[in-house]
Amino acid sequence: MTRPRITLDVFSDYVCPFCYLEAPELDALAERFGGAVAIRWRAFELRPEPEPTLDPDGDYLHDVWERAVYPMAAERGMTLRLPRLQPRSRLAHEASAWARTQDAVRPGADSAMRTALFRGFFEESLDLADPEALVHVAQTLDLDGQALREALAQGDFRQQVRADQQTARQLGIGGVPGLRFSLDGEHAGVLEGAQPRRQLFLAVERLLDAMR
Known about the structure:
It is built from eight helices and four strands, in the order βαβααααααββα. The protein is of the alpha+beta class. The radius of gyration is 17 Å and the shape is globular.
């Protein structure tokens, strides 16, 4: 099987609505270009400790949602609700990294976990900082909840999450979603913010043209 020459690293956070809103656009990109592009979701914790989390009842969040989130959700045919809480997201990133290791046991575990975490938070106010809530998500996906519980308690994937964060900083990515394109392993550009699929398609088409 030919290895994709274009890689798209998606730096995202589970508390960022625009990252969730970008998911269907990235699905469309994968469908359009098939094996030509490898999409890798990477961790980016917007508010790591000790930085304070946002006030779920504050004016800032309500303004952003009314002005940008709800209109984009309607445009992309998605249902989002302003969560009742604003948890830290590191454990959710660790759970996602763990799910990636389960693909051999449960094909698609990585994608299923990512979707469940986004949907759980933005539709049901799932507490992403609660290990038992994350274990429950894993169990609903027919994954080994006890194995995830142990991995979170031991911090098995903590360094991997931190490494993703450091990579994003080195690339100059300050907001999410941060989309880093690579061609044959070489940096080929970054887009920040939720992009329409046309913009994503154009970015990939330019790289494909450069390969010819």
